[in-house]
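Q&A log
Question type: sequence-to-structure
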Amino acid sequence: MQSTALKRFDPKQYYSIEYSYKYYTGPVGVKLTGNGIDLVTEFYTKKYGVKILTTNDVKEVLDFIKKLRRDVHGDLRQGFILSNDEHSIPIVYVREGRNEAIIYGDSLGLVPDDSNVKKLSQLGIRVLQIEDLRQMDLYSCHTDALVFLREFLGKNLNTGKYFIPSLINTILKLSYKHRPSGRSEQAFFIKSPPALLKLVQYEDFLQKHKAHPNIKIHHNIKRNRHLTLEKFLQKYAPELEDIKSISSYLRKKGIKLADIIEIQFYLKQLRYLGLPESLEQKFIKKSQAFLLQQPSLLSKKDKRPGLYDFAEKFLSQYCPQQPSNDTPAQIQHRT
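Response status: OK
Response body:
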């Protein structure tokens, strides 16, 4: 009986460390690749019940929505990430009763002559385009898109309830504006609803919203815990001297997603090698704790060993040994 070694995680295939700020010379954050986005999507699908399709072609989004409208009955929510190597845009199609809408959430706000919105409007569905600029760095759009969709699509899997119920009515009610965009009869501009304020990097914009005491931010989305916007701003105050205008939430979230990517990378292999589903959460939690004990992902002094040895030990302890002639690369490919 032959034990199969795991394929080693290569961070460069899934994210890059960014040094993009103007004056600060050290590493500041993480930019996800398409492979990294895919692994986070898989993780969120399992944890939050989200449905997300990633594509670089808005036509594929259109065709997928047409198919949903034709073949799927009842209420539904489907997310899309319109993505290339440089930028990602989250899109949500939602149907609640007789109401339908497409929520278009480019982190760059309003882009002049946005052809994507015009194409989406051809479906005859109201397109709600969020007009506020959220992103101020050069790399967090991919993280923004994933968290955006987690907020709008995520469920408590124990209760089956969405984190944001009645999404269409909620987003219209809580948005400060809802006005025609002039780009199409079906397209409207809306302001950022509270669920998205955590993603805004422009701190001055967030400070203006502190005057609204009823605005609360999901802090622990799964446990439905909230922070007031003021407390949220205190927790994620800018930390690097030259970027005081940028909230640190997305930067920190990107670093956490890098951990999720590595965990998901090994979890897929363990599943293939026979890890019982009942032990998946054990692996995830122990992996998270193990990574927390390691040097920071952005550390310039200390090398981060990662999860390989830990995952190998977990494999030998919990997975039934199966005869296999597969190479590690074949195992990863088949997962």
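Response note: The mean pLDDT is 84.
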